[in-house]
Amino acid sequence: MSKRLIVILALAFVVGISFAAYAEVQNVKVSGDITIQGVSRNNLDLAKERPTSGTNALIRKSDKVSTALSIVRVRVDADLTDNVATTVRLLNEREWGTDSTADNDEIDLDLAYASLKEFLYSPLSLTLGRQELHLGSEMIVGDPDTNNAATGSALSFNIQDLSARKAFDAVKAVLDYDPLVVNLVWAKVTEGTNTVNDDTTLSGITADYALRKDTTLEAYGFAKTKDSNATQFTAAQRATGVALTVSPTKADKVYTIGGRVQNSSIKDLALNLESAFQFGRYNPGFDINSANAALTMKRQAWALEAMATYDLKDAPVI
After folding, report:
1. Preceding omega of 284 cis (within 30 degrees of 0)
2. Cβ contacts of residue 121 below 8 Å, gap of 6+?
3. How far apart are CA 78 and CA 84, in angstroms?
4. What is the pTM of this model?
5. Which residues pair with 278 in a beta bridge?
6. Is 80 exceeded by the pLDDT of residue 240?
7. How far apart are CA 292 and CA 214, in angstroms?
8. Over the stretch 8-22, which tens digit does the pLDDT of each residue have?
9. 43-57, 211-225, 294-308: which has the minimum mean pLDDT?
């Protein structure tokens, strides 16, 4: 009798799940894009080839490159309810004429997240999963793979900055108290061994205030930490081959605070002024470009960016 009851309950559970999943899909949108680029570069890094040790491709810089590449993306957006939506996007990046390379034929999961509107109460929205983070002007956060290094990209090292991979594995909460909007972000940039303190994580907050219809003020703070037991680069992996005496118990920490003002009071013209201060602790053992044999040291840096963007949509046609 008990076995029959278990079977009946199991069937009821399967039917219930199938019915609920089918009934709650309100709208499905399929989209995509294909980008084809021709690339020709010479002395991009303003330096000659640096000496290398062994076969380490990470520190090789090509003075000249000429190639073509394709980026193909397919995206599916599904509205499950009025307040719940999901997005999945597949990505393939390949250089032309490299069919023999397995990585160029890979179809990777580029985006995979769920959006929850009015979560718990109306001002709060959540985005959970692999997502792009477009915060402010993206001077601080916008691309997880900078300095010409895209994690997992099949593109050659000397053109990896052209990769379309811009997603983070993250949780983002948006609190909309119009005219104030607050974004809270936590992301896992890299995961090493899940039982070892070797991950890289990013957390931050931004606050955007609409001072007027044409003027926005923004303040933000971010923290990126590479934990103390992350893999350090050996002397053989460095351009100079200098062995570092770095304590592996010191984490690499980067803190950034800043502010931005944007004004669009002049028709078709957007003015943007942003400044940020960066501080924290630098561990040269985690930096493949470091030739410094010193122990960890303090970070301190300033950044200032001014932009003017003019939209030509209303310009007279000649």
Report:
1. no
2. none
3. 9
4. 0.77
5. 256, 301
6. no
7. 47
8. 444 444 444 444 444
9. 43-57
Closest by alpha carbon to 187, among 154, 123, 142?
142
- Which residue type does 281 have? R
The sign of the CA dihedral 221, 227, 228, 230 is negative
pLDDT digits 0-9 by tens, 69-92: 999 999 999 999 889 999 999 999
Residue 208 carries which side chain, given as an amino acid letter? D
